[in-house]
């Protein structure tokens, strides 16, 4: 590699902005000369225990995983605000000759918007709790401290990826335009799953250590709630499977346990997030909707183990949606994100600004076809 392609400090080379492109502010490739991290001035002799040394060397990953995951909250706030407002102003005709109705009147449009609002409320509370534990709870075992970051990351990734994909899809063609911000949020959320430790690999390590009993994560404070029962059931099933497998590095563990470890971490996180929101006094309708969404994410388990069938789950979700919907405006406004939303799809004036800014090509051709007089933009 030449200097043109590398950042360098004191003879150490790392990929420069050319390689890391727009994510270079995340993948920081410069380290100040006066940075006295013991890692950089560590003893170069081979350590007695390579694994312990390696884990010590990367211990800051937990902090990075926690910190980086937090930006999923403003991504979701911005996306839901933009799609929520768009869905209120975009109208379609109800049948031939019918009146025009905003698309927010359709339950299919309400679903991703209202679920996202519920997730944001709960994630905000979970973030406050987890960052406080991480920074201020000196009694926390280092493994658990790292574990909390992994748990938060897994839950934020799941909510972020699912909600952004659904919000983008429900925005039609508008969701594709880079100007409308959401495609960038989706890409950055994906990056969050990889940077500071790939989320699946982090989950595998944490869940395996919990199953092996190396340490325990903070237990449920509301053991009777649905999400706590789910967490307990998932972990105890995996513990049973694990008992029959002699070694967590063998092929059986690979085939039978590995695929269930990320869902296990998410189950723990959903319960923790719910409790954090309950303790923080999050709006009860939003909390009920979050719970309904979490149940939906592992619908079959609740049906098999708690006897809550599809119809009951659907009814619970429907009631929670009905309770949140009348306060949609209030919930959107309370996000406080509008000043940060640059998406032109937010209003017809902004969209007109984009249309007016593109070059106009003129000619003298004439095209006419039935309905040509009613060619209002669908966008
Ligand atoms: C925005 C961004 C910023 C970054 N910044 C930095 C930085 O500042 N410093 C730095 O050192 N690195 C940085 N990285 C690199 C990052 O840490 C790695 O990309 C990440 O750890 C994943 O490694 P990989 O890309 O080699 O993927 P791989 O390890 O090749 O993973 C590919 C797939 O294999 C799976 N896999 C890998 N190992 C296992 C396993 N043991 N068991 C099961 N499945 C497995 C993964 O789940 C994944 O699906 C950054 C990455 C991104 C995206």
UniProtKB/TrEMBL annotation:
GO terms for cellular component: peroxisome. One of its GO terms (biological process) is lipid homeostasis. Pfam families: ACOX_C_alpha1. Residues 75-207 form the Acyl-CoA oxidase C-alpha1 domain. One of its GO terms (molecular function) is FAD binding. Coiled coil: none annotated. PANTHER family: ACYL-COENZYME A OXIDASE (PTHR10909:SF382), ELECTRON TRANSPORT OXIDOREDUCTASE (PTHR10909). This is Acyl-CoA oxidase. It comes from Penicillium angulare.
């Amino acid at each position: 590699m030449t200097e043109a392609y590398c950042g360098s400090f004191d003879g150490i080379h790392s990929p420069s902005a050319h390689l890391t492109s727009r994510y270079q502010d995340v993948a920081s490739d410069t380290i100040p000369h006066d940075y006295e991290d013991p890692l950089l001035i560590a003893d170069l002799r081979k350590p007695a225990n390579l694994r312990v040394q390696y884990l010590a060397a990367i211990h800051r990953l937990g902090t990075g995983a926690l910190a980086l995951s937090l930006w999923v909250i403003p991504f979701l706030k911005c996306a839901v605000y933009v799609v929520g407002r768009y869905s209120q102003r975009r109208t379609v005709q109800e049948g031939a000759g019918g009146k025009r109705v905003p698309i927010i009147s359709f339950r299919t449009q309400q679903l991703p918007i209202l679920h996202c609002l519920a997730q944001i409320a709960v994630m905000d509370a979970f973030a406050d709790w987890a960052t406080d534990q991480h920074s201020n709870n000196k009694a926390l075992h280092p493994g658990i401290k790292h574990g909390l970051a992994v748990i938060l990351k897994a839950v934020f990734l799941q909510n972020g990826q699912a909600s952004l994909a659904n919000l983008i899809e429900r925005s039609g063609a508008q969701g594709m335009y880079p100007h409308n911000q959401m495609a960038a949020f989706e890409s950055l959320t994906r990056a969050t799953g990889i940077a500071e430790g790939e989320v699946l690999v982090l989950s595998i390590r944490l869940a395996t250590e919990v199953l092996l009993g190396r340490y325990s994560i903070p237990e449920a404070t509301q053991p009777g709630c649905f999400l706590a029962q789910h967490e307990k059931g998932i972990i105890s099933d995996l513990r049973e499977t694990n008992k029959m497998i002699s070694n967590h590095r063998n092929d059986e563990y690979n085939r039978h346990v590995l695929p269930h470890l990320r869902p296990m971490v998410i189950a723990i996180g959903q319960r923790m997030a719910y409790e954090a929101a309950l303790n923080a006094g999050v709006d009860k309708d939003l909390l009920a909707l979050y719970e309904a969404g979490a149940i939906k994410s592992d619908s079959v388990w609740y049906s098999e183990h708690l006897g809550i069938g599809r119809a009951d789950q659907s009814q619970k979700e429907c009631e929670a949606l009905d309770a949140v919907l009348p306060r949609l405006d209030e919930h959107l406004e309370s996000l406080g994100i509008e000043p940060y939303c640059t998406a032109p799809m937010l209003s017809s004036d902004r969209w007109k600004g984009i249309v007016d800014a593109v070059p106009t090509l003129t000619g003298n051709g004439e095209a006419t076809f039935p309905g040509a007089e009613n060619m209002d933009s669908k966008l």
